[in-house]
Amino acid sequence: MSILRIDSSARLESANSRIIGDYLVQQLGQPVIERDLVKNPLPPMSPQDLVGVHGSHEDDRASLRQHLAISKELIDELKQADTLVLCVAMYNFSVPAYLKQWIDYICRAGVSFRYTKNGPEGLTGVKRAFIVTASGGTPIGGDWDFASRYLDHVCRFLGIDDVVHFDASGSKGSPDVVIAAARQQVDTWLAQQE
Ligand SMILES: Cc1cc2nc3c(=O)[nH]c(=O)nc-3n(C[C@H](O)[C@H](O)[C@H](O)COP(=O)(O)O)c2cc1C
């Protein structure tokens, strides 16, 4: 049983998504692999390499080989976890670019998902995802939220059927209030598991 935690807030200090993520993984009490996409950004892909990674193209180009190796490392890391924790800051109604970049590295036909006659099938084997979405004024789960809804879809696409959301929307008030409300959601979820 292990957790892969992904952080994506540009704020390294006082980020609601990071603070709530800390609380969540502490409460879950399992070994955690941490990947911070802000402290350790993934290398950007050229347009050709993006297409090459997506299609798992064999190519002699050194840059493509390098990006395919990173993609493999990230997918292996994900497949070794049974729980994914995504700590997300809403930027312009969607996810941070660093997180989108990670998604572009890990969504690969035949590796992390495959197409079947019944539609796409996820291959990651991850059992559950927790998505902590922090925003300013945009309500999480509302019509303007293209972050948590998008990530919910990506998780299910990759075969993670159990997706749990924690709402760290700033519309709830000051950071202290937002964090306390999200911690309460975590506590409520944990109590329901007993
Ligand atoms: C570049 C940028 C874009 C943002 N866009 C939105 C937005 O579309 N909707 C919103 O409610 N808040 C927006 N915010 C506010 C953040 O979502 C908010 O500060 C949130 O707490 C960030 O997560 P963090 O506390 O984990 O850093 C934006 C902040 C930044 C820096």
Question: CATH H level: which superfamily?
Answer: Flavodoxin domain
Give the ordered list of helices and strands: EHEHHEHEEEHEH
Radius of gyration: 17 Å
CATH architecture classification = 3-Layer(aba) Sandwich
Give me the count of strands: 7
What does this structure look like?
This protein has six helices and seven strands; from the N terminus they run E-H-E-H-H-E-H-E-E-E-H-E-H. The model has no long low-confidence stretch (mean pLDDT 96). The protein is globular and about 55 Å long. Strands 2-1-3-6-7 form a five-stranded parallel sheet, sandwiched between helices. The chain has 194 residues and is an alpha/beta fold. It has one domain (3-41, 80-99, 113-193): Rossmann fold. Bound molecules: flavin mononucleotide. Flavin mononucleotide is lined by residues 9, 11, 15-18, 89-93, 134-138, 170. Residues 9, 11, 15-18, 89-93, 134-138, 170 line the site of flavin mononucleotide.
Features:
binds flavin mononucleotide, 40% helix, 7 strands, two-stranded antiparallel sheet, 194 residues, alpha/beta
How would you summarize the topology of this molecule?
Blueprint: E1 3-7, H1 16-28, E2 32-36, H2 47-54, H3 62-79, E3 83-89, H4 97-106, E4 113-116, E5 119-122, E6 128-135, H5 148-157, E7 162-169, H6 175-193
Parallel strand pairs: 1-2, 1-3, 3-6, 6-7
Antiparallel strand pairs: 4-5
Helix pairs in contact: 1-6, 2-3
The chain binds flavin mononucleotide (FMN).
Residues 9, 11, 15-18, 89-93, 134-138, 170 line the site of flavin mononucleotide (FMN).
